What we know:
This is Glutaredoxin. By secondary structure, the protein is an alpha+beta fold. Helix content is 44%, strand content 20%. A four-stranded mixed beta sheet has the order 2-1-3-4, with helices on both faces. It is globular and about 35 Å long.
Amino acid sequence: xxxxxxxxxxxxxxxxxxxxxxxxxxxxxxxxxxxxxxxxxxxxxxxxxxxxxxxxxxxxxxxxxxxxxxxxxxxxxxxxxxxx
Length: 84
């Protein structure tokens, strides 16, 4: 299983949806709360080029946000990506 990293904020509905989808699949992930650690927000922006959360990586692949991950799930491409 590829490592999953997700930049989030506590009151982000899309962040919660992404966490629910991963939990439903039994996928563990590393969560980086950019509200609790605001210095990591700039790291997220630099790595992703995006300003919004969630920002999700599976292994070295930047997936994007929840909509992007959900699209992968709907097309049957999320599980293969998670398996590496």
